[in-house]
Specification:
By secondary structure, this protein is α+β, with helices and mostly antiparallel strands. It is about 50% helix and about 25% strand.
Length: about 120
């Protein structure tokens, strides 16, 4: 009777190890394929003449984008159904480094901002 219990326990343990091995194999294959696809897409994007400098999300499906096209920057309104040109900026007048490296510096730390927000909340 004891040998029957131990053999079924070993069988269950063997099945568990097999399922775990298959799971980790599928996980590894998924990771490798994802890396390969990302590298392939990066190679496809690298050769293009267009570059998105900045995107501002207005609503769920509406964006304003600044696109670099050669020596010109285009400001576009992008929605689900349409793309419209808002403005055209020259390279001499527009400096994308100011946008990319822009940081918000309020001079306050998080606790000071949180205290100010708490002051405006209704009291219970």
């Amino acid at each position: 009777m004891l040998s029957g219990i131990s053999s079924s326990w070993l069988g269950n343990l063997g099945q568990l190890m097999g399922v775990l091995a298959v799971f980790f194999a599928v996980l590894a294959i998924t990771w490798l394929v994802t890396r390969w696809i990302a590298g392939y897409q990066q190679g496809q994007i690298h050769g293009q003449n267009l570059r998105v400098v900045e995107t501002l999300r207005l609503t769920t499906n509406n964006y304003i984008q600044i696109i670099e096209v050669g020596d010109v920057y285009l400001v576009l309104a992008v929605s689900k159904d349409r793309v419209e040109k808002i403005a055209e900026l020259d390279k001499e007048t527009f400096h994308p480094d100011h946008i990319v490296n822009r940081k918000m510096d309020t001079g306050l730390d998080f606790h000071e901002i949180l205290d100010r927000v708490k002051q405006h909340l209704p009291k219970k």
